[in-house]
Amino acid sequence: MRILILLVVTVAIPACKQVECGEGTIERNGACEPADVTTNGAMCGPFTVLQGDRCVPMLDPTVCDPATTQATYDPDTGVYTCIGTGGGGCGAQLACAAPTTANHQTICGQIWDFETNTKFADAGATGAKCPTTPTAAGPCSLAISAYDAIAFGTNPSTATPLSVGSVYVDDCGRYRLADIDVNGVAGFVGLGFDDATGMGPTGTTVTVGVATPRSSMAATKDLEGFVVTQATTTKWATAGGPALAAGIYAPIYRQHKLGNGDPLAPQANVQVMKGATMVTANDFYFQAAETTRGMVDPLANVTGMNGTALVTNAALSDGNIWAGAGGLGANCQWETHSAASLPNIVFVQVYRKLNTFGQTCND
Predict the structure, then answer these.
(1) Do the Cβ atoms of 201 and 230 come closer than 8 Å?
(2) 65 within a domain of the structure (yes/no)
(3) Same structural domain for residues 286 and 357?
(4) How far apart are CA 277 and CA 157, in angstroms?
(5) Does 358 lie in the same domain as 273?
(6) What is the SS3 assignment for 308?
(7) Could you give the CA distance from residue 21 to residue 126 in angstroms, rounded to a whole number?
(8) What are the residues facing 104 on neighbouring strands?
(9) Model pTM greater than 0.85?
C-alpha cells in the first residue's frame, strides 16, 4: 500500500500547474504576462508595426517648424495641424490656439479698411510680423487693446485694459491677442483699434471698437477688426451723416447665416431697429449701389449694397434689443445686440441671421 501511494504521487507531480499567475495576468509558455497584451502582429493597423506590446507608426510623425508654425490640435478629429504663426503670405491662416489657463481667451482676426471694404494691409505685404517700433502707416502703426466691453461702453475714459499675454500684428493686417485675462468680465470682450501713438481721431485711424462674447479657455477666430480714417468720418458728416464727435454705432448686416454661404456677403434692404421701434431720426445709410462705405445718402432709409448703417444716440442702457427689419428669408430673424454711440469712437457690430424658433433659416 505504501509503495502504491508513492507511485500515485510520483505520477501526479508532472500534471500539477507549476506557475501561479496573479490577477490581470495569464500564463504563456511558462511565464505570467498581462492578459491584454497583443501578441498577433496582424492586429496592428496600416502603416504601423508591433513593437513589444504596442502598435507604433512605421514613419516618423510630422513635426511643425517652430520658427514659422504652431501645432494646433483639433479635438474633433484628434489631428494636429501645422498652422503658420506668420509669413507664408497674406492668404495663410494665422495660428489661433485656445489658452490652457482658466479665465483666459485668445482672439484672432483680420483688420479691414471700413470705407474701402478691403483688407488693411501694406502694399506688397508678405506676412512679416510687425516690428517693435511702430511704423508711420499701415497695420504696423496700430495698437490693439482688450477691455471689458460693458465697462468700456459705460465710460471709455475710466475703462482699464485687460491683461494680454501677447499681441501679434503683421503687415497683412492679421492680428492675434493671446491669453487675454477675462477674469471678472461678465459678458463681452471689446477690442479697441487705434494708433500706437495714442487714442484720438488723427493718424491712421480714429478709435474703432468691436466686441465678442467672453469665452474662457477658448479661441475666438475670424473676428473682424476695422480702421476708419478721419477723412472718412468727415466725408460722412459733410454728406449729411452723423458727426464723429457724438459717437457712431455702425451695424453691418450679413446676407447669410453662418455656414450657409459667404460669411462676408452684405445684406441690402435692412432697417435698423431698437426693439420694435424704428430710429429714423438717428439712422443713416449709404447710397443704394455703393459696395464701399464712403457716400452717405441722407434720404435713404434702408441698407444698400454694403449692408451698413450709421447710428447715433445708442446707449447700453437700451438693453440687448438692437436688431434689424427686412432682408430676411423664410424662418429667419436677426441677432439682437446691445449698442453704444461713444464720443469720437466708431463702434462696429456685425449682425447675422438666425433660425426662428423651431424652424430652419436657409438664407
Answers:
(1) yes
(2) no
(3) yes
(4) 30
(5) yes
(6) strand
(7) 66
(8) 181
(9) no
Question: What's the pLDDT band for 8 if we cut at 50, 70, 90?
Answer: very low
pLDDT confidence bin for 340, thresholds 50/70/90: very high
- Please choose, from the candidates 337, 344, 340, 286, the residue with its C-alpha nearest in 3D space to the C-alpha of residue 116: 286
Range of the domain at 359: 244-363
356's grid cell:
426662428
Terminus-to-terminus CA distance in the chain, angstroms?
A: 99
| Calpha distance 347→249 (Å, rounded) | 5
**Residue 156, phi then psi, degrees to nearest 5:** -60, -30
Whether 120 and 212 share a structural domain: yes
Of the residues 204, 228, 252, the one at which a domain ends: 228
Are 327 and 363 contained in the same domain?
Answer: yes
For residues 190 and 299, state if they share a domain. Answer: no
**Mean pLDDT for the stretch of residues 312-317:** 96
Closest alpha carbon to 111 in 179, 176, 161 = 176
Residue 129 in contact with residue 86, Cβ under 8 Å? yes
Grid coordinates representing 90? 497674406
Kindly state the cell numbers that stand for 360.
430652419
Q: Comparing 300 with 40, which gets the higher pLDDT?
A: 300
CA angle 350, 355, 360 (to 5 degrees): 135
Domain count for the chain:
2
Q: Would you say 308 and 251 are in contact if contact means Cβ atoms under 8 Å apart?
A: yes
Helix, strand, coil percentages for the chain (3-state, nearest 5): 10, 35, 55
pLDDT score of 320 more than 60: yes
Cβ 346 vs Cβ 250: under 8 Å: yes
Residues 287 and 328 in one domain: yes
User: Based on the domain organization, do 295 and 208 belong to the same domain?
Assistant: no
The label of the residue with cell 481667451 reads 105
Distance between CA atoms of residues 125 and 113, nearest Å = 15
The distance of Cα 86 from the centroid of its chain, to the nearest Å, equals 17
DSSP character at residue 253: E
Q: Tell me, yes or no, whether 315 lies in a domain.
A: yes
